[in-house]
Structure formats: structure tokens, C-alpha cells
Design the sequence.
């Protein structure tokens, strides 16, 4: 722990790469961990454009289920620690003069919510104090995108349910029951042109957001915090290795061991809502 604290205090360009394990303690199931969602549902049936074309009803029911869970969830201590670490005058206490960017694979919005909660408290030096950037590389669960070729309108929508036909279907998803076949006309539509809308998340086979900026930050980083991710989804799975390749340090915070542990200079096993606040000291 003391060696990690020394490394943290001397680091100048810090990034955190977070995954589903960060939100597990908030009640958002992980996809690949024990009991994760992907053990119930095939990812290729739910998280690709081909799956959406084949059955927009099934895909929308699954994402409605995820939206409803995210709407009820609250940030846990790991989210709040990263939020505090994003505030310059608080971060200077443990990593003086450093920069920090949070790169998250999560789509639940809990990291942003944690930053908003911290910003509304007396922990901020002033209302104008900047905080670090959050890069949501896989998009946001509450964004809705038009599928119309000439529209592509994107908006945030936190309606619960997002449309009347989806109300109550989360109970069927949870039970693993055969889902109803909802007509296209009753699924979420674009508010601008009326075409069928899709969840505004990055699916398998699609290019994540902010990749040019992420690669630039990885090239500059001298410390990478890997929090709650099994490091199996590319390109996020390779980012810590790239930091290591140019001489940076890597600290991994996970419940279980993963195949990327070999790049870790520091390995903290256990729930990240406990290990991360203790390690960072915030």
C-alpha cells in the first residue's frame, strides 16, 4: 500500500479505466462475472446491430430492463472516490500537480452522477472549480438514437418507461421468460422524424467514442488505474498494456483475478468500493 501511495503521489498524468465491476455494488449486474447478465442472455442476441434488425422488440426489452435498473441505482463509494479524485484541490492532497481522466466502459451514468453529487457539496473549493473529464467510450444507456439514415437524431431520455409498451417487461427479462413480441409501431420512436429509435450505446462491432483522445491520454499516462473490468472487451482491454509498454505503472482493482493481471504493478483484490477508497486515501 505504501509503495502504491508513493507512486500515486509522484504521478503527473493519471487515467482510470473502469468497467462493470465498478457499478456492481450499486446493483447493476456485471456481464461476465459470476452470475453476470451474459450468463443468462447471449450478448450476440442483444448487443449488435444485427440483433436489433432481427428483433428490435427483444433488444428494446433488454435495454428497458437495464434503463430501469440504472434509474434506481446510486453511486457507491468507488464512484464517489473517483469523483473526489477528479476535483483538483482534493486530488492535490494525494497526487500534487497531476491531471486525471476517467475512461469508462459503463453506460449507466453513475460516474457522472457521482461527480454531480460531489459538485453540489462543500468538498468543491468553489462552484466554478473544474473537474476532470469523463469519457464514456460505450455511450449512455439514457441516450436514444434515430435509426433513420437521413436523421440520426440523438437525445437523452430518462422517461420511465421510455414507451408504454415496454412497461413491466423488465420482470419478464429478470425471470428469463419468453418476451412478448412488441410491434415496431409501439417501440421507441425518434421525436424528430418518427422513425424507429435504438438505444444510444456502442454495440459489438461498432467503434467506441472518443478513441483519438483516449489513445492520446494513454500515450501520456504515467499511472493507469484499472477498476472493475475483466479486460476482455477491445479496445479497452489493451489500454493498460499500452501504458505499461511506455514505462507507466498499472494498478488493478478487481474482485477476482483476470488475464490482464500480468501487467499490474499493484493488484488490489476485493470489492472496489472498499479497496479503491482505502488505496487512494479518499
Sequence:
Amino acid at each position: 500500500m505504501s509503495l502504491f501511495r508513493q507512486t500515486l503521489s509522484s504521478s503527473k498524468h493519471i487515467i482510470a479505466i473502469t468497467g462493470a465491476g465498478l457499478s456492481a455494488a450499486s446493483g447493476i449486474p456485471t456481464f461476465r462475472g459470476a452470475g453476470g447478465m451474459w450468463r443468462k442472455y447471449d450478448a450476440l442476441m442483444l448487443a449488435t446491430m444485427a440483433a436489433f434488425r432481427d428483433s428490435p422488440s427483444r433488444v428494446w426489452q433488454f435495454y428497458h430492463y437495464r434503463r430501469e435498473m440504472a434509474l434506481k441505482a446510486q453511486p457507491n463509494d468507488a464512484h464517489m472516490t473517483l469523483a473526489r479524485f477528479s476535483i483538483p484541490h482534493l486530488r492535490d492532497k494525494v497526487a500534487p500537480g497531476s491531471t486525471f481522466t476517467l475512461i469508462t466502459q459503463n453506460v449507466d451514468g453513475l460516474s457522472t452522477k457521482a461527480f454531480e453529487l460531489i459538485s453540489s457539496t462543500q468538498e468543491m473549493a468553489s462552484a466554478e472549480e473544474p473537474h476532470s473529464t469523463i469519457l464514456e467510450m460505450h455511450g449512455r444507456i439514457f441516450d436514444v438514437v434515430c435509426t433513420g439514415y437521413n436523421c440520426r437524431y440523438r437525445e437523452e431520455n430518462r422517461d420511465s418507461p421510455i414507451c408504454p409498451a415496454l412497461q413491466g417487461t423488465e420482470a419478464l427479462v429478470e425471470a428469463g421468460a419468453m418476451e412478448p413480441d412488441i410491434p415496431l409501431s409501439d417501440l421507441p420512436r425518434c421525436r424528430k422524424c418518427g422513425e424507429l429509435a435504438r438505444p444510444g450505446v456502442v454495440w459489438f462491432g461498432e467503434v467506441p467514442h472518443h478513441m483519438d483522445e483516449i489513445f492520446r491520454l494513454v500515450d501520456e499516462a504515467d499511472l493507469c488505474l484499472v477498476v472493475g473490468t475483466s479486460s476482455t472487451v477491445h479496445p479497452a482491454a489493451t489500454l493498460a498494456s499500452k501504458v505499461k509498454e511506455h514505462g507507466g505503472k498499472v494498478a488493478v482493482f478487481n474482485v477476482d483475478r483476470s488475464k490482464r493481471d500480468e501487467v499490474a504493478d499493484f493488484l488490489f483484490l476485493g470489492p472496489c468500493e472498499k479497496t479503491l477508497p482505502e488505496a487512494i486515501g479518499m
Observations:
- The domain at 29-72+141-201 is CATH 3.30.1600.10 (SIR2/SIRT2 'Small Domain').
- The chain has a mean pLDDT of 90.
- The two ends are 14 Å apart (CA to CA).
- Residues 56-72 form the longest helix (17 residues).
